[in-house]
Target: Ribonuclease HII
Amino acid sequence: MLLSCYQQQLIEAGCDEAGRGCYAGPVFAAAVILPKDFSHPLLNDSKQVNEQNRYQLRSIIEQEALAYAVASIDNEEIDTINILKASFKAMHLAIDQLRIVPEMLLIDGNRFVPYKKTPHECMVKGDGRFASIAAASILAKTYRDDYMKTIHEEYPMYDWINNKGYGTLNHRTAIEQNGICKYHRKSFNILPQQLTIFSE
Model:
């Protein structure tokens, strides 16, 4: 059972990212402020929720959250600043967009770059412990999946509609056969040295 909040006094936002370990595409992050008494039987870490239920939850979260926002950092910036910094930057951009200013941040994971002077707590596996972080994980995951489905149309050979940019066997095989494209993260060293970059 997820906890509805970490503390009762301050307005808290849960933050999480999706796509940190992918070979291709942006990293997405979401920030969500839920009512203190919010609960839903399906809500959990997005990795524990099937696709149909994730999209059902997204609608409920967007209707019932006091505030929410989603942001992303593209693969080129990931290659420039590294994936960890890109994940934190995407969280900061999402927090920037919240129409209610949070007084505390709950961050999924064990590290974070402080956001302004807002206090934060890092929560290992927080998306399975706190409703606001779980809600953020659902939004980040579904928005990122939608993006990957869109760019799949441009480069269908990588099967992003199914693997969402993760390093699955079919994705790795497609990279071996076609090289990489403009959406791949070159800093991840996913390309065998003898292959040339697949350009437009």
Remarks:
- The mean pLDDT is 94.
- The chain has one domain: 12-152.
